[in-house]
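Deviation from plan, reported transparently: acetoacetyl-coenzyme A complex.
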Amino acid sequence: MKVGIEDICFYTASYYLDLQVLAEVHQIDVEKFYAGIGQEQMSMAAPDEDIVTMAAAAALPVVEGQDKSAIRTLLFASESGIDQSKSAGVYVHRLLELDPACRVVELKQACYSATSAIQMACALVVRQPQQKVLVIASDIARYDLDSSGEPTQGCGAVAMLISADPKIMEVEPVSGLYTEDVMDFWRPNYRGTALVDGKYSTKVYLKSLKHAWLDYQQQGGHAFSEFNYFCYHQPFTRMAQKAHSHLLKQVGASLSTAEAEAQIADTLSYNRSIGNSYTASIYIGLTSLLENAEHDLSGQRVGFFSYGSGCVAELFSGVVQPGYQAHLHKDYHQTLLARRQSVDYATYRRLYDYPNPVDGGEHAIAAETTGPFRLAAISQHKRIYEKTAS
Ligand code: CAA
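Because the crystal trials were delayed, the predicted structure below was used instead.
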């Protein structure tokens, strides 16, 4: 039985900052951002957008037309959670009008947890193949102003329907795993922004790739030569290029620079404009590959390297299915990216500094998002979500 991704769709926020603006303010050569870290823009959430509204907007095209009673599990992956107790997925469950006979839970392990959700979803589907699992990853990446991480912010959500009818990609069963207790990036409960040891985090990422690949081989995974493409977690797109060079060296592959670049290039396009979306980033990378590759990817094997600081990493593979093109949401994504509004530095600061009231009062939030759902208010410590007219 094949199990994997039946449908995949992403969403990002209404605004973006071009990194040219940040470079001017910080008096840095913009090529450090455009070429050095491989980022051009970063999505910024409007005050009435958050991980819930983005998640619901990503999942809406996936659940439309589905028999909702078949979706008996919703797994919500995030590292920018809005509540210590209630799963953000429960709000999304209501906004999407899913069947009440559904289990909903939130998963956390930095940028890795969406991959864990996919693996758990595949296991559930193997057990009960008539059921489908909705996996949603949604995050807002926030670093301190003037920190090395500031140009690597961004936000986005991706929704994937996991089923025994994987019209997009079969997920193959072998995985390589690596876990180590390290402090490269973390966010204590009392902080709104992540703490990060930037250079160290890139080293741990590469070390984890090496160990996950070794474990993948020990578990009986495919040889490097059996892969056509690789899709990496992309905190910034240059990280994926560094990771791929690292893997090529490790396996002793003799590819030309152009051949090596071709294995990852199409996975990078969307994230160059969206920025880091933490848990969602690797699967926005997959969408980018599927929608931007010039030729038919049917039957092609994609390697995935998922990394979550702290750290947990997993390397696994998927095979793109014949006819996948008919099930993509390319127009939805390209319209979404094209209609985002560019902001100046003052607006970026307004969005960055938007207050997060903790006093239990009544806080109405003005309508700004262009998306289908919005955070309308925070009232007596409760987040009030509603559909918009769009
Ligand atoms: N033109 C072209 N390139 C330039 C340039 C210019 N004018 N100026 C600098 N560069 C290049 C540098 O040579 C460097 O290239 P190499 O990496 O190939 O050496 C690159 O631009 C970056 O420059 P710096 O090393 O000086 O950059 P930095 O120290 O200011 O920031 C960073 C880099 C530490 C990774 C920072 O972006 C950061 O802290 N990011 C957040 C943490 C992160 O994303 N870590 C990734 C692994 S952890 C993870 O993956 C989980 C997650 O999502 C956070």
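The first strand starts at residue 4 and ends at 11. We consider this an acceptable substitute for the interim report.
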